[in-house]
Write a structure and sequence with these properties.
Blueprint lengths: L11 H13 L5 H9 L8 E7 L5 H9 L8 E10 L6 H13 L1 E10 L2 E12 L4 E13 L4 H18 L7 E4 L4 E2 L4 H9 L7 E5 L2 E4 L7 H25 L12 E4 H6 L10 H9 L4 E4 L5 E4 L10 H15 L5 E3 L2 H13 L3 H6 L4 H5 L4 H10 L1 H11 L3 H11 L2 H11 L6 E3 L8
Parallel strand pairs: 1-2, 1-6, 2-5, 8-11, 9-12
Antiparallel strand pairs: 3-4, 4-5, 6-10, 7-12, 8-10, 13-14
Helix pairs in contact: 1-5, 2-5, 7-10, 7-11, 11-17, 14-17
Length: about 450
């Protein structure tokens, strides 16, 4: 199995991109990496993993230690941002995990830096040695809380920006930065599988990678059976949606769970990092990255995510599962559940197919209304709501050939607009009871 590729000699293009991003758009916490490098407190790593932690215990650090301590040839940097939104009361878990980790592991260095937005606040951060293979960089964003509206997006961005600084400084020897969560169980071939899948390609061929996943039981806790059932339904919904996009031919057919992704630092910097928002940051980052390079969908290993309710984000898995539980309690539903009508995906497939002939209407000076007339009334109405007229204007002014036209059609109908289109189509094709299976169009 190939080792992690070294990128200590970054190309000038990549180096310029990283330097520009770090100087103009990175979070002030990159000073942590700069100080560690300056004072020679940090040595090279082959892999990097970013995990935000809000109201968590230190169990996830223990799992990582147990999983990745056998390969003496590989060093890993775990960057953990212990954070808390500024609209919440103090949580004892944040201080407890901080104290526990400092008590358990060896302190290599302590870093103090002032937040540029608040010169009165002095932040303290620590680099710890878990063992010979793994170091842990603890970033404190629970004393100086994160703005509520920026939430987990800012926490992930802080970690990603620190990693990019260390890549620029040739401390991290790969362009790949992994992201996960405290409730996710990572297998021992987690890093090596991505290395193996990408080592034959140019280091900027892929902009991101997405790991397969499954949810596992929360154990013998109160209502765990109900929670596991609801989580299973939600996971099936996610697969159903992505499968629908794939069958329709959408280039945005991939999963968008923040616990299961890795990004290429070059493309990450081009997108200006994680969106600073309290939820959906993973979806919006991947939506941008998909326009810059290929999204690699790994077939293995499968990451295991613990089923649990969560108050940490306003939407996403936790809140969605809670809504499913409420519905199950009201309706006492069986193995059927409510989801998008298959006709929504069939309409998407029709639209994507008709993109292939859209440029012909410009070449012949035909009316774009004639092109729209090829589509169904529900699809025409939904596209009008999405503002497809702007796509036509751009094609008229900027597009000169079929290849450019096809590419821009998918820039316009990106992952976000695709989701909006499917939602709009539900006005014409209401959601229905679906038996999840491999057969989508029935």
């Amino acid at each position: 199995m190939p080792k992690a590729p070294k990128h200590t000699a970054l190309s000038k293009k990549i180096e310029r991109c990283l330097a520009q991003y770090l100087s103009q758009h990175a979070e002030p916490e990159i000073a942590i990496a700069q100080q560690l490098t300056l004072h020679k407190k940090i040595t090279p790593y082959q892999h990097c993993l970013v995990i935000p932690a809000y109201d968590e215990t230190d169990h996830f650090v223990q799992r990582i230690q147990q999983t990745f301590s056998n390969d003496s040839s590989t060093r890993i940097l775990l960057i953990t941002i212990i954070n808390q939104p500024d609209n919440t009361d103090e949580t004892i878990n944040n201080q407890q995990i901080w104290d526990s980790l400092l008590h358990t592991y060896t302190v290599i260095g302590q870093i103090n830096n002032r937040d540029r937005s608040n010169t009165e606040h002095l932040q303290n951060h620590c680099l710890l040695s878990i063992n010979a293979q793994i170091d842990l960089l603890l970033v404190d964003r629970f004393h100086h809380k994160i703005p509520q509206q920026q939430g987990v997006g800012l926490a992930r961005k802080i970690g990603g920006d620190i990693a990019c600084q260390l890549i620029h400084d040739k401390i991290i020897e790969t362009l790949w930065v992994h992201y996960s969560d405290a409730d996710t169980y990572l297998p021992d071939n987690y890093f090596s599988s991505l290395t193996q899948a990408t080592h034959l390609f140019e280091n900027t061929h892929y902009s991101a990678a997405v790991y397969p996943y499954t949810h596992i039981s929360s154990g013998n806790t109160p209502n765990s059976s109900e929670l596991d059932q609801a989580t299973r339904y939600y996971e099936q919904h996610l697969h159903y949606y992505v499968d629908g996009l794939k069958r329709a031919g959408s280039p945005y057919a991939y999963h968008t769970l923040g616990s299961c992704i890795a990004s290429n630092a070059y493309h990450y910097c081009q997108t200006r990092g994680f969106p600073k928002r309290s939820g959906g940051e993973d979806f919006y980052l991947l939506n941008k990255l998909a326009k810059l390079g290929k999204i690699l969908e790994l077939s293995s290993p499968i990451l295991k995510i613990e089923s649990r309710l969560s108050h940490r984000v306003p939407f996403g898995t936790g809140p969605a599962v809670e809504k499913i539980i409420e519905r199950l309690q009201i309706k006492n539903a069986n193995d059927n559940t409510i989801d998008y009508h298959p006709s929504c995906f069939a309409e998407l497939a029709t639209l994507i197919t008709h993109f292939d002939c859209l440029f012909d209407y410009k070449k012949t000076s035909a009316q774009y209304t004639d092109w729209l007339a090829l589509l169904s009334q529900p699809l025409q109405k939904s596209l009008a709501t999405l503002g497809i007229e702007k796509l036509f204007i751009h094609i008229d002014k900027q597009i000169n050939n079929q290849t450019e036209c096809h590419k821009h059609c998918h820039y316009w109908l990106d992952g976000f607009k695709t989701l909006k289109l499917i939602h709009l189509l539900t006005e014409h094709y209401p959601k229905q009871s679906v038996i999840y299976s491999d057969k989508l169009y029935r």
